[in-house]
UniProtKB/TrEMBL annotation:
Keyword RNA-binding: no
Protein name: Large ribosomal subunit protein bL17
Coiled-coil ranges (or none): none
A Pfam short name: Ribosomal_L17
Subunit structure comment from the entry: Part of the 50S ribosomal subunit. Contacts protein L32.
UniProt cross-references to SUPFAM superfamilies, sorted A to Z: Prokaryotic ribosomal protein L17
Record bears the keyword Ribonucleoprotein: yes
Keywords assigned: Ribonucleoprotein, Ribosomal protein
A GO cellular component annotation in the UniProt record: ribosome
Amino acid sequence: MRHRVKKHRIGRYGSHRRATLRNLAREIIKHGSILTTTAKAKAVQSFFEKLMTKAIKAKKADKKEVSVALRREIFKAIGDRRLVNKLVDEIAPKFLERPGGYTAIYKVGPRRGDGAEMSLIKLVEEE
């Protein structure tokens, strides 16, 4: 039974899974979109959405202490100050009025080598 089991395992043990999600989230921040397997895309989507929510709260924060605390939480998850600043100062202002759903997953097709289902995960652009 899978009662109260919420995380995507993606075939890795704990520290390897965290490192994989961290690296995928970094690439989304750097490039805006990445091509990966569908399972990894679904796993990183929830991880990245939580970071994005913290970044938006940090951008909207009135007090500097709140903004710094949220930036430190994002840094704990990502591990790169420049990417934290890019997320909060450049990417988050585009999504200030959006209540959620900052990323979209588009299925691309099977990978040539092993047939794994590939997907493109990218930041949603405002219309």
